[in-house]
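Troubleshooting entry. Yesterday's outputs looked truncated, so today I'm pasting the complete records for two proteins to confirm everything comes through intact. If either block looks cut off, that's the bug. Protein one:
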Amino acid sequence: MELRRSDLCLVLENLVEDQNISAILRTAEAFGAGQVCIIRDGKKPQLSKGVSSGASKWLNIKHYKSTKPCFTALKKQGYKLIGALVDPKSKVLWDKKYTGKIAVVVGNEPHGLSEIAQKLVDENIYLPMYGLTESLNVSVAAGIFLYEVIRQKEV
């Protein structure tokens, strides 16, 4: 637990697939995220222990029913919110410098970040795609975003 990064949070906004949430929690735990916020207006996710490898028991997970209260709480804690957005007009992931407390926000599988999330984050960041596929699976994208933030903080 001493390796937890109190300066790193991952926010999952209205993810649909519980399997993706499970995979993301495993990645967040492996990278030492200090906090994970799950925004979901329905029931809590049914985590797959096989996929998550029980990571949820080592994570500080907070549940919210809507985006605004989650973002407000994180901003009060001093986090800068970075939205993962499929928009080539946004700043590219590795062209940004990540310092201080960072909360990476990923949106749901079919639609990405909600309009309210896009407006409330401090900055939207883009992960460029060079092939014909428009986007990655949300669990893979979340892992790449977490890795880049941590990589920069460790340099």
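Protein two, checking that the full record survives here as well:
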Amino acid sequence: MSQSESTNAHSDKPRKELIFVVDDEPLLVEMAQTVLDAEGYQIRAFCDPENALQAIEESDRKPDLLITDCLMGSMDGLELIDRCRRVQPGLKTLLLSGTVDESFLRQQAVKPDKFLPKPYRVKTLLKVVEDILQGR
């Protein structure tokens, strides 16, 4: 799946935050994209972390939040977070994983703003996203 972008169709509403979603599992990217898009967020979805990094480097509008899987083929989520923050210091991040838990993060130099284990509930994802974006 190549990158895709959707925008808020309700032009009378204030523009919502731009969220980049990165996961090497297309079905999980599509699910997160559908859920977040329904809440009015602008979404750019990627199955390849290299494409997400390139988009952050080249885009005039930078994301307000990066949601990334932890373990992916060409680049893991922590490396993606680190490299994206070099381009966009202060980038808010959410790390997802079905294979590691929060204790894994204690040993890492790079720290996401929040961690969410997979599988997650849609309501939980939405609450965590809102908390990060609101600085909570």
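Both blocks look complete. Sanity check on protein two: The chain has a mean pLDDT of 90.
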